[in-house]
Amino acid sequence: MSMIRDLRAVVRPALRPTLRKHTAPYDYGPLRATAAPSAVVDCAVYRDGVRCGDSVPLREALDAVRAGRPNEQCDGSDGFVWIGLHEPTEQEFAGIAEEFGLHPLAVEDAVHAHQRPKLERYDDSLFTVFKTIRYVEHAELTATSEVVETGEVMVFTGRYFVITVRHGGHGSLRALRHRLEDDPELLAKGPSAVLHAIADQVVDDYLAVSEAVQDDIDEVEIDVFSAGNGKTSRGGDAGRIYQLKREVLEFKRAVSPLLRPMQVLGERPMRLVDPEIQKYFRDVADHVARVHEQVVGFDDLLNSILQANLAQATVVQNEDMRKITAWAAILAVPTMITGVYGMNFDTMPELRWRFGYPAVLVAIVVICYSIHRGFRRNGWL
After folding, report:
1. Is 150 buried (19+), middle (13-18) or exposed (0-12) by CB count in 10 A?
2. Contacts of 52 (CB under 8 A, 6+ apart)
3. What span, in angstroms and rounded, lies between the C-alpha atoms of 281 and 264?
4. Is the pLDDT of residue 206 over 90?
């Protein structure tokens, strides 16, 4: 217990109240000393679902929301600020984290990325991690083809702010921001509406990728079970199947951990999530469950296809061995006969017979033909 109290004593001073209104001018600390971080993709203030002008400097956005005062385009009603960042460094994110009182552990996860999907609740904010998935187009699936590409989107959600941190070359939120701005009634619900929109877009991308991966699996399945495909029957598709299985496993790691967080957001009342928005999280959770079932099915199906491919390769190898054995048996006849008559003993029969040589050749041909016919009848040749 003493260790827990010591840990709390260290962590709590780092947690500052988020976005409280100040009557006196607010001291921006680190943000006053430097310009806005270069990792900021967009920064805007929203009131009643309406964006207050174009992108505004970070300090002005913070001041406008904290003070709740009007500016040139918006009235004085409370709103929220949405800050979008792309792969910020620790130095670039430090000032923002301090201004909003973000938990140090969540900040570390957001900067260094490579996190599993999750939902964490802190005193005045939610921290959500999403794995974004993009299908990589390819002319032909090979043993080295990249099928899916992953990225990450971290979302800090508070009473008056949304901070999105994106990692990877895809999963841009620019189009999503524009769609939300075209629906002021939805955006007026606050930061939780933005969180739902991001979750919905990520899961919709999962559905699209799932359909594309299904096509790849169908292609491999057809190749494996098609008759007359010599490459497939000899196990040549094992590399492609294994590579596709690895890509599906990466897809599964993005989808499976997200199921529980979406269920929590859709079922448990939270003061940071609007009750109207919470209903939509249940729909997102249903979609995640659907994709999860599909991905698990993909994994099981690829296991079956791989086993069938290996079984076919084993069957073909057995057939090859039977053919080799049959031909070896046929060739053993002339080898034995010629070996016997190659010993050159004077007292051997038929050595001085005029028709001995033709008779031996005829006997070799007849015996070999009979053996060959027997093997063909039994399916060995």
Report:
1. middle
2. 44, 45, 46, 64, 71, 72, 73, 74, 79
3. 9
4. yes
